[in-house]
Amino acid sequence: MAILVGQDGTVENRVVPLPAGLTASTLTQASNYLANVAVGRTLAEARSEVTRQRAARVAELDELTQRLVDTGLATLTEGSQCRRRR
To answer: pLDDT tens digits for 44-85?
Structure first.
């Protein structure tokens, strides 16, 4: 269950389905991250920021993967992909 508290004091409870095997420490990390992102934002703004941060991390991983391939330290296997930033 997620409890959302608005700046105006409104409280909403939401049931959130979780994948099996999720640990308490993972939930705590997710809670801390989301609380940090959500402060001072609407839910839509927080969602947009999470999406933006995720896209930035994916681009960073793609770039690092390409560097490993370019230097010969790794190879891409069939079905894997590395998108180059342009």
So the answer is: 999 999 999 999 999 999 999 888 888 887 676 765 655 544
Helical packing angle, 24-38 and 43-70, nearest 10°: 110
* Reported pTM: 0.66
Task: In whole angstroms, give the CA distance from residue 33 to residue 49.
Answer: 12
Structure tokens, 84: 């180059």
SS3 25: helix
pLDDT tens across 1-47, in order? 888 888 888 999 999 899 999 999 999 999 999 999 998 898 899 99
In terms of Cα–Cα distance, which of 85, 67, 86, 65 is closest to 77? 65
Residue 82 · residue 76 · CB < 8 Å: yes
